[in-house]
Design brief:
The structure is a single chain. By secondary structure, the chain is an alpha/beta fold. The protein folds into two domains: about 5-150 and about 215-255, Rossmann fold (3-Layer(aba) Sandwich), CATH 3.40.50.150; about 155-215, Single Sheet (N-terminal domain of TfIIb), CATH 2.20.25. It has eight helices and eleven strands. The chain has helices at about 10, 20-25, 35-45, 60-65, 75-85, 125-135, 150-155, 220-225; strands spanning about 50, 70-75, 95, 110-115, 140-150, 165-170, 175-185, 190-200, 205-215, 230-235, 250-255. It has a seven-stranded mixed sheet with strand order 3-2-1-4-5-11-10, sandwiched between helices. Strands 6-7-8-9 form a four-stranded antiparallel sheet, with no helix packed on it. The chain is globular and about 55 Å long. The structure holds S-adenosylmethionine (SAM). S-adenosylmethionine binds near residues 53 and 75.
Length: about 260
């Protein structure tokens, strides 16, 4: 698929510094607590895995290292270029595509959407379209799984105030990158907007990136999964199988193809 063909809002909102692969990897260097979970689930599910919104291959690469066939799909070329540069000859196949509508002419044992990437879909219609594409690509008996934040924690700092957010060494080797941000939340649409100012210590320049996402509480996501022909097999509040509660940081949902589509 040609990237220009995706030249709509979904691509536009990842066309900024936050989704620059080298910067993303620096930012997420210490974010490793989910890797074991996803690798184990992939191994238990079969031999063919599709990661939607695969980014820089943070998860696709270690899964492939276990000898599993992995396809990673992402809308941002800047993320996939980085993923490809890290993958060896036997690594995952990385493809540019939109998870809301894709056709890979292939079926999988596990389709996964990790690291709250589902929150990039900004309407129920987009989620339903994504789930329909996923279902078409899932083998009978296959697993569809995702993890995503719980809204309460994410919206707790959505007060419009600028505050320090994160920092890392510039991947270009030119000093530090310091990021400040302010967050706002629209309760009616459940859209969370992060404005992030990236300040580069070498020349003091500041780049603004805007990150837009939508919150999906468990009770809003369940009916969308059921309408799309998925049954929730397990849900947890962490990667170690913790119970899902109102105060969990994360919701982990493991689903299977329901025999019939719900009503
Ligand atoms: C938080 S990153 C997660 C990347 C990777 N899964 C990980 O765990 O590190 C979210 C990813 O979603 C991708 N994305 C956003 N909208 C998308 C869409 N409509 N289709 C495919 N990928 C999308 C972004 O380009 C980005 O790489």
């Amino acid at each position: 698929m040609r990237l220009e063909a995706l030249g709509d809002a979904a691509w536009q909102h990842v066309n900024n510094r936050y989704y620059d692969g080298a910067h993303y990897d620096r930012r997420y260097e210490d974010y490793v607590h989910d890797v074991q979970f996803w690798c184990d689930l992939a191994e238990a599910s079969g031999r063919r895995v599709l990661e939607l919104a695969a980014g820089t291959g943070r998860l696709s690469l270690p899964i492939a290292a276990r000898g599993i066939d992995v396809v990673g799909l992402d809308i941002a070329q800047a993320m996939l270029s980085r993923a490809k540069s890290k993958a060896g000859a036997d690594g995952p196949r990385f493809l540019v595509g939109d998870m809301r509508d894709f056709d890979l002419d292939q079926r999988f044992d596990l389709i996964m959407i990790a690291c709250s990437s589902i929150c990039h879909l900004l309407s129920d219609d987009d989620v339903l379209s994504c789930f329909a594409s996923a279902r078409r690509h899932l083998d009978a008996g296959g697993t569809f799984a995702m993890d995503l934040v719980l809204p309460a924690r994410e919206t707790a700092i959505a007060d419009g105030q600028w505050r320090p957010r994160f920092g890392y060494l510039d991947p270009a080797g030119r000093g530090d990158v310091t990021v400040r941000g302010r967050r706002s939340y629209d309760v009616a649409s459940r859209i969370l907007t992060d404005e992030l100012d990236y300040e580069f210590s070498d020349d003091g320049r500041v780049e603004r990136a805007t990150r837009v996402s939508r919150m999906y509480p468990f009770d809003q996501l369940c009916p969308l999964l059921e309408r799309s022909g998925f049954a929730i097999r397990e849900c947890h509040g962490g990667f170690g199988g913790e119970p899902l509660t109102d105060t969990s940081a994360i919701q982990v949902l493991i689903c299977e193809r329901a025999p019939r589509m719900a009503g």
